[in-house]
Specification:
The complex is a heterodimer of chains A (114) and B (112). In chain A, strands 2, 4, 5, 6, 9, 10 and 11 form a 7-stranded mixed β-sheet that branches. In chain A, strands 1-3-8-7 form a 4-stranded antiparallel β-sheet, with no helix packed on it. Chain A has 114 residues and is mainly beta. Chain A has strands at residues 5-7, 10-13, 19-24, 31-37, 44-50, 53-57, 65-68, 75-79, 88-95, 104-105, 109-113. Chain B has strands at residues 10-14, 19-24, 30-38, 45-51, 56-58, 62-67, 72-77, 86-94, 101-102, 106-111. In chain B, a hairpin with a 6-residue loop joins strand 3 and strand 4 (45-51). Chain B starts with 9 loop residues before the first strand and ends with a strand. The chains are: A mainly beta (114), B mainly beta (112).
């Protein structure tokens, strides 16, 4: 069964450092997303990406965040200057069509900012 | 330090019983709904979805019911198994947007 692959599974970084979280969406999917989940809380939408541009973003996705599809397979989330409160699980997702069905999620990257 | 998070409602059922997990949504403009299962340390896993032009949809051992009048969604799991133990989230989507808005989640514990 096709999967969304995320690397690394766990990243520890110092406050103020830049991090790049990587994702390989399912190959025939056209819509890509980043979500995050702070420990013990619900999953929150960050950004959606289609046709090489951001289609929607939440209030969380401020200027320190950026996304990129550098080639035909990778989709990245960059956090420019990490803060302690950025510590969370970051999930990448992709979907074949606009608004589903399903949105397949990756297993996540646990980001710990120290 | 101690993290402060949401206290999840917990549903405890015996193996073989049916489970019903409920979700209330707030946006009357939502027209697409999904149930996800999340096991510890993993990403949300798609279970079943339903669009607002339906009030019931069935999958393998799962049924989703949608009541738009009271903005309520439920997930029924038949013959619950220990492997069904997880946190279950409902998510809603509005036709005008791409974002999924997740609910707080319900922890399902299946005891043998």
């Amino acid at each position: 069964e096709p999967e969304v692959t995320q690397t690394p599974s766990h990243q520890v970084t110092q406050m103020g450092q830049e991090v790049i979280l990587r994702c390989v969406p399912i190959s025939n999917h056209l819509y890509f997303y980043w979500y995050r989940q702070i420990l013990g809380q619900k999953v929150e939408f960050l950004v959606s990406f289609y046709n090489n541009e951001i289609s929607e973003k939440s209030e969380i996705f401020d200027d320190q965040f950026s996304v990129e599809r550098p080639d035909g397979s990778n989709f990245t989330l960059k956090i420019r200057s990490t803060k302690l409160e950025d510590s969370a699980m970051y999930f990448c997702a992709s979907s074949e069509m606009d608004r589903g069905p399903g949105y397949t999620f990756g297993s996540g990257t646990r980001l710990t900012v120290v | 330090g101690e993290s402060v998070g949401l206290h999840l409602p917990t549903l405890s059922v015996q193996e073989g019983d049916n489970s019903i997990i409920n979700c209330a949504y707030s946006n009357s403009a939502s027209d697409y709904f999904i149930w996800y299962k999340q096991e510890s340390g993993k990403g949300p896993q798609f279970i079943i979805d339903i669009r607002s032009n339906m009030d019931k949809r069935q999958g393998q051992r799962v049924t989703v019911l949608l009541n738009k009048t009271v903005k309520h969604l439920s997930l029924q799991i038949a013959a619950t198994q220990p492997g069904d133990s997880a946190v279950y989230f409902c998510a809603e989507n509005v036709n005008s947007g791409y974002a999924l808005n997740f609910g707080k989640g319900t922890s399902l514990l299946v005891t043998p």
